[in-house]
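WARN no homologs supplied; continuing
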Amino acid sequence: MALQKIQLYDTTLRDGTQAEGVSFSAEDKVRITQKIDELGLGFVEGGWPGSNPKDMEFFEKVRGITFDNVKITAFGSTRRAGLKPEDDPNLKALLDSGVEVATIFGKSWDLHVREALKISFEENLDLISSSVCYLKERMGQVFYDAEHFFDGYNANPEYAIKTLQSAREGGADCLVLCDTNGGMLPGQVEAIVRDVISRLDGPVGIHTHNDSDLAVANSLAAVEAGVVHVQGTINGIGERCGNANLCSIIPNLQLKMGLECLPSDQLAKLREVSRYVVELANLRHNRHQPYVGNAAFAHKGGIHVNAVLKNSDTYEHIKPELVGNHQRVLVSDLSGRANILYKAKEFGIDTDSKDPVVLEILEKLKDYENKGFQYEGAEASFELLMRRAAGKEPKFFDLIGFRVIDEKRQEDEPPVAEATIMIRVGGHVEHTASVGNGPINALDNALRKALEKFFPELKDVSLLDFKVRVLTGGEGTSVSVRVLIESGDGREKWGTVGVSHNVIEASWQALVDSINYKLLREELKREGNA
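OK structure emitted
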């Protein structure tokens, strides 16, 4: 028996860009569309043609591109009151976009008809039916987004239903019920959807917002009630608190509810697409995001890890590979031998549970974490710690000394930072200096400058993120600080950590670990072990 097919509709490029701090260029939007096409979704809403030059540029760019799965959709509103459909610039822009699918929204809530449009209820019904009909006669598909439908239904259910009937009479291919304010509960959504489906023939869809943190739950409740078309955004980005998160909806529908959304082999691209959109939006990926986040299948407690190593089903609700993720074991003062053995295997260090090195690593780990070190976001530092305990950490350079000067010369000018450093590489001593936009940046620049003549591969390394956290246990400015650094070379990223009462010393520890890790990976590659 074939699985029920759920139609997926992505609005990342339109509704998603209304999120605070999110903006995509036309080229970004094309690249995201191609990535979503690889994932296998049915529709991508490209934007509102005529509303801004960027959206028009996108529609022009995609005209010459062939997609395997997605159909590009143009978004707009019903015609303006007082204008015939053929005279309405919004409807004309939808036709001029060159796409075969349009989505238009109209008013379902009597409050909006009275207060926003200031027209009669009958005139609003005519706006809806005539607009849909005009587009349907000229385009392949027309979806109708019933804006504020659930609020409108609660206020005046009979009129809200009439607006849907008008769209259906106009020829709408799907009636999409929108929880525009994001305030509904799953039980409410399910009951209202069931009533709509009982009264109207034809496909019904759902579009929810996350203002009550229930957008995914409300979308799934609507599917349980019978909708066959689901709208959302990648990672749930969107206005205010966001839209329904397709990265959660898709695996829930396919893996938990047995409903077909994507080809099964395409589902494994979900995490890749999630991270791709985050990168182009210039946002940080939410490590705690279900299914696709770094922490989604991460295990920290020793008892959990011991069980997972025997049978991953004990603490994982799905196989992470199904959505393109992977199992991770974290290390902390909660770790047991199982954590250490797992990480040793991951890093290619040969050991077993009876090896005294395992106990030594555990003791060092707990001692270091007691001092404020944290390795959950600094696995590169932890690998170096393990290799050090096993006597397998190579020595690339020795510090002879460094000095950092941070000088402010005038009140209205920024400080000037300069770092001087002396290191030994083999039998060679290198003494150099560099400036930076702060003491840590100056020290980083000086260290790289001294080392790059010996290790040119360090030119590829850049510092991606730098965090300083004040640790408890001290008073005022005398407290310890923890510095977490994320570095990358264009192919991979790694985290390192340092702790000290002195922020420059803590930064130095993390910087040195970052460089040593890069040099270690390069050495292992040359030896064929990485």
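The chain has a mean pLDDT of 88.
OK
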